[in-house]
Every structure is written in C-alpha cells, then in structure tokens.
Design brief:
The protein is an alpha+beta fold. It is built from six helices and eleven strands. It has one domain: paralog of FGE (formylglycine-generating enzyme) (Alpha-Beta Complex), CATH 3.90.1580. The strands form four sheets. It has a four-stranded mixed beta sheet, with helices on one face. The longest helix has 20 residues. The chain starts with a helix and ends in a 7-residue tail after the last strand.
Length: about 300
C-alpha cells in the first residue's frame, strides 16, 4: 500500500468504478446510486475465531441492487421535513441519545436531527434518526418520485461494504483507518471515548459525506461516520438458518439492525461484519441511514 504504483492502481480502480456506477443508472429519478452487481460471499466474521452474533459464517447470495453512494444528508432530510411537515420521534418524544462532556451518554430533550448538540453542514449525514423516521422518509420519497427505495438488507449492506464480499475487515480494506471513526480529534471533545489511538481524521463529530476515499465499489462512509439502519429485524442465531439467497431477516422481532460503526464509537464497531441492534424507535447522535433500490424493478425511461 505504501508504494506509488499500488496507490495509483487503487485510485484508478476507484475512478473507473465510480464512473461506471454514475453512467449506468438507468432511471432518471435515482440520484447518487451505485449499481452493486450481485454474487455470493461468506457472510459473517471470517477473521476471528471467537463466539459472537457474527457467527456462524455462512454463504449468502444477493441479486443486483442499487445502494446510495452516500448516507442521507441533513439537507436531504430537511427537504422531507419541510414538504411533509414531519416531526421525528426525537422531536415528538424525549429527544436523542447524546454524549455529555466526559464521554458519558444520556438522552437530551432538545437534541434532534436539526440540533444534535454539535455543528453540522447540509452535507453531513443526518443523525438522531430512528428506524421509523428512516422508513417514513423512504415512503415519502417513493410517493413523490415514483421510485421503490428501501433500506438495504443486512446481507446487501455487508456485501457492499466488503466491495462485493471480499475479505476486508473494514470498508477501506485491512489497513489503518481511512474514514471518520472515533479518533484523537473526537477525544478532545469527549474525553471518555474509546478511540483509534494515534489516528486523527480531522473531524471531532460527523464529516460531510464523501470526505474520505470510497471503497472499491465507489461507495462512501460504510465504515464510520454514522451507524446505518438496515431492513432486517434481529433474531438470536438467525445466521444458523437464514436462507442462502437474498435473506431479509426474520419476519418480526423486537430490534432492528444497524451496521458500520460511527464517528463516536469504538473501532471494533467499524468492522464490515460487526452487528448492532436497537429498537425501531431508538435514536442517537450516531444513527443515520442510507438508501437502497432493487435493480430488477427499474424501468428504462
């Protein structure tokens, strides 16, 4: 990774992949979506021999699908709020889980997507979003655009984060960080954080989407920035009996899955196979989402 030819090769690969994705989106209503060609891969923690919710490793195959190049931004969510008069669950109820000074966490009544307790630009990923909020945004978007956006399934998310199911620990590969994770800059603001020591990404909080290199599919911020809600319900030992083809998770459950780690979370959560779950109404300053769209249901204009 340190020699110049390897770096140039990687840059050229990223550029070609991104250009392909941008030039092969056959529906005029889809913006900033990357076509992920389907395939089979070994889903789960292929790196560590320890019991976890990421076991057992099992073969999964997914069809072609589109995935958002970026996480949904503050500006995009603001359009929804203004047009629909929508209030998030944080605004309707008792706020958003946030960090306080030394790195302890509590729910703060006044914190929400428009006021997470730290500065954001319109290009930053929207946070303090529950799974229900994300679902309502998607329903509004589809109604207005005639699209069929949805959240990615957990299998689709991991397949894309690993650049088509490759053996990558993080979306950037197996090397040192190249994304917005808990780092030295975050620790200056929140002293109690468990960080990636010696790494400084330059952002104490969220970073504008696309601030770091994309993965090999041309998709940004799949490790770090914000935790991303996916479609699936959580179920203990689901990996032991999930279908091989296009698993969508259990039919029901108590919790929804999030993937990818975030700007404020310990490095382990940024792994491409790491799983976290919470109630569909949960919201925190590290929770956002990304759009997916089925490729098979697109029609050429």
């Amino acid at each position: 990774m340190k020699n110049i030819p390897a770096i140039l090769f990687i840059i050229l690969t990223f550029s070609n992949t991104t250009a392909f994705a941008e030039n092969h989106t056959p529906h005029s209503n889809l913006n900033n979506m990357v076509l992920v060609k389907g395939g089979c891969f070994q889903m789960g923690d292929i790196f560590r021999d320890v019991p976890s919710s990421e076991k057992p490793v099992h073969e999964v195959c997914v069809n072609d699908f589109y995935l958002g190049k970026y996480e949904v931004t503050v500006g995009e969510f603001r359009q929804f709020v203004k047009a629909a008069g929508y209030k998030t669950e944080a605004e309707q109820q008792d706020g958003c889980h946030s960090w306080v000074g030394d790195g302890t966490e509590e729910k703060i009544r006044d914190h929400n997507w428009n006021n997470p307790g730290f500065p954001q630009t319109e290009k930053d990923p929207v946070v303090c979003i529950s799974w229900n909020d994300a679902n309502n945004y998607i329903q509004w978007l589809n109604k207005n655009k005639g699209t069929k956006y949805r959240l990615p399934t957990e299998a689709e998310w991991e397949y894309a984060a690993r650049s088509g199911g490759k053996t990558y620990i993080y979306s950037w590969g197996n090397d040192t960080p190249s994304g917005n994770v808990a780092d030295e800059s975050a620790k200056k603001e929140l002293s109690g954080l468990n960080i990636w020591k010696g790494y400084n990404d330059g952002y104490a909080y969220t970073a504008p989407v696309g601030s770091f290199m994309p993965n090999e599919l041309g998709i940004y911020d799949m490790s770090g920035n914000v935790y991303e809600w996916v479609l699936d319900w959580q179920e203990d030992d689901y990996y032991r009996h999930s279908p091989r083809s296009n698993p969508k998770g259990p039919d029901k459950g108590k919790y929804k899955i999030l993937r990818g780690g975030a700007w404020d979370l310990q490095p382990d959560t940024a792994r491409s196979t790491s799983r976290y779950w919470n109630e569909a109404g949960a919201r925190a300053v590290c929770m956002g989402f990304r759009l997916a769209h089925p490729a098979a249901e697109l029609k050429h204009p």
